[in-house]
């Protein structure tokens, strides 16, 4: 075990690697076994039973089968848990698989079927909850509406902060207080453990779409939930029977990426801060959504976060028409969904990531979301400037007609 007193940047580089020197290797090992030789029926059977029950394999029994447990995945989980200040973490084949497991685990364990979901949420999460496919009954509400939305059979409260795509901040501690003991899951994808640790404010589960900042290079689809041992066991039980374990190559890439997560996030954030300030003076932009800009929620920002992050949304004066031009005219930014990577992306939430969301909760047609990468900030500004100039809106009143 590395010293618990290390700073976050040191933990990012060293966590989950404690035994490597002992093994005589320096890089993270990858175990791709889909099945594992069994010593004998008894030890193998006991190991199987331990894992199906949400535990880890018996040393003598081995991992048995690659859907139940994998040592490369477990290494990444232990590192992420250190960074999120939790006892454990459980990794999944996608962020949505992680969300599914959180809903199934909390509803199955308690026999309660009700979920409270604070909007706005990532479009896929909103869609999953609204679809009813997992058998849960969902009440959507605002952060202030959580207390009123609670029922005796509420199993879980879900929120996202900063939220996708409006960058709204939600006061985690206030929601936890309103939750009266019901577990609160915080989607920490946008902030990352570098800028925010939700457990410091009473959250009991911290979810990441690891596809985004944790991976950081646009080459892994993954999800992870950091939580206590008891919740981790429930999540592993669901993961084993639903077959949602993360592939070991993905876990390797994520673990490798953790080492640079602190510097990536801070450098992308420095770029984003410059771009947000510049965009807020741009004639084509009517509003910039970025934590802390224009004095928004300054108190909460400083209480809850260690930075403002690298996601920006903008409202365009030219509405949908200008969004169409902007996303097609960029050259350095890539017009693509997803976020959090080293290269900058731009996308239109109402048409894409938030398309399945109910009309009343869907982002406006003139809103475009930017994920700021590691390019030179002046190159990014020049690209946006030329793409915004591709068609300057005739007048501000166009705005309303496109909403
Ligand atoms: C992308 C995303 C998800 C879903 O994760 P996948 O890895 O795409 O399944 C969940 N929450 C947020 C905030 C996201 O951006």
What does it look like?
With 403 residues, this protein is an alpha/beta fold. It has two domains: 251 residues, 3-Layer(aba) Sandwich (Aspartate Aminotransferase, domain 2); 141 residues, Aspartate Aminotransferase, domain 1 (Alpha-Beta Complex). 39% of the residues lie in helices and 14% in strands. The strands form two sheets. A seven-stranded mixed sheet has the order 1-7-6-5-4-2-3, sandwiched between helices. A five-stranded mixed sheet has the order 8-9-12-11-10, covered by helices on one side. Strand 4, helix 8 and strand 5 form a beta-alpha-beta unit. The radius of gyration is 22 Å and the shape is globular. The C terminus is likely disordered. Bound molecules: pyridoxal-5'-phosphate (PLP).
Evaluate the radius of gyration.
22 Å
DSSP summary, beta strand count: 12
Distance between the first and last residues' Cα? 55 Å
Bound molecules: pyridoxal-5'-phosphate
Low-confidence stretches: 395-403
Spatial sequence of strands, sheet with the most strands: 1-7-6-5-4-2-3
Tally of helical segments: 16
What's this model, at a glance?
This protein is an alpha/beta fold.
Please supply descriptive tags for the structure shown above.
Aspartate Aminotransferase, domain 1, single chain, 403 residues, alpha/beta, binds pyridoxal-5'-phosphate, Aspartate Aminotransferase, domain 2, 16 helices
